[in-house]
Amino acid sequence: MATIGGVRRHIICGMNITHYLGSVALGLGLLFVGEAQAQNAPAAACPAILKHEFARLQDDVPQNLCQYAGKVILVVNTASFCGFTKQYEGLEALYGKYQSKGLVVLGFPSNDFGKQEPGSSKEIADFCFNTYGVKFPMFAKTEVVGDKRNAFYAALYQATKSAPKWNFHKYLIDRNGKVVDSFWSTTAPDSSSLVSAVEKALEQKS
Predict the structure, then answer these.
(1) In which order are the strands placed within the sheet that holds 72-78?
(2) Which pLDDT value is given to residue 206?
(3) CA distance linking residue 164 with residue 155, whole number of Å
(4) Kind of pairing, strands 170-173 and 179-183?
(5) pLDDT tens-digit map of 154-194
(6) Contact 173, 75 (CB under 8 A)
(7) What is the secondary structure of 99-123 as a DSSP string?
(8) Angle of helix 87-98 relative to helix 121-132, nearest 10 degrees?
């Protein structure tokens, strides 16, 4: 306590209590602004092409594709009973080789072509893991062509003017969310053209 002119004032480290409380309020205000900016940063950093949500294949838990922002993404529509189904093995190998460098493969099972994906989510998930050891992210069965295609595939088509004509069509998205290439079903995951495009995208910084 100190008395000045008969009026008691609290002195805190040489600072008047009024000034002290003002500093605290300013500090809290800056803290709240900083937290708000931090919370808004992920949303702002997510490119438009990834602002979509899908159920995870294994358990139907909703997954926002924004979690893959900043990665190189290979998007593939898959099927369990197709002549190209063995590409699962190559896709998993590609994912395993380049995952640490920022590649993610996203699988979208679809029954659009030849009715070659008739199973339930559990049946598809069990088949992919037990037969090919698939560990890359996969989502619940969906439509990838026509008027009923999901919004993500509609955006991919809009960006490339290239729609899947069969199972295992591939789209490549760079770290900035730009769709940089698409590959027909006949392009194997270990083909030089696809691997070269993936490596080139991985070398670029977001």
Answers:
(1) 103-109, 72-78, 170-173, 179-183
(2) 74
(3) 13
(4) antiparallel
(5) 999 999 999 999 999 999 999 999 999 999 999 999 999 99
(6) yes
(7) GGGTEEEEEEE--TTTT---S-HHH
(8) 70
15's CB contacts (< 8 A; 6+ apart) are 23
Catalytic machinery residues? 82
SS3 for 129? helix
Spatial contact of 106 and 75, defined as CB atoms under 8 Å apart:
yes
Amino acid letter for position 141: K
- Indicate the average pLDDT of the chain: 86
Q: Is pTM, for the whole model, over 0.85?
A: no
Low-confidence ranges of the chain (pLDDT < 70): 1-44
Helix residue ranges, H only, the chain: 17-45, 87-98, 121-132, 151-160, 192-203
**φ, ψ at 118 (rounded to 5°):** -85, -15
What is the token pair recorded at 166?
A: 């069969």
Which among 202, 204, 176, 188 has a CA at the least distance from the CA of 49?
Answer: 176
**Is the alpha carbon torsion for 87, 88, 91, 92 positive or negative?**
negative
Residue whose pair of structure tokens reads 């099927």 in the numeric block: 79
Sign of CA dihedral 195, 126, 184, 156: negative
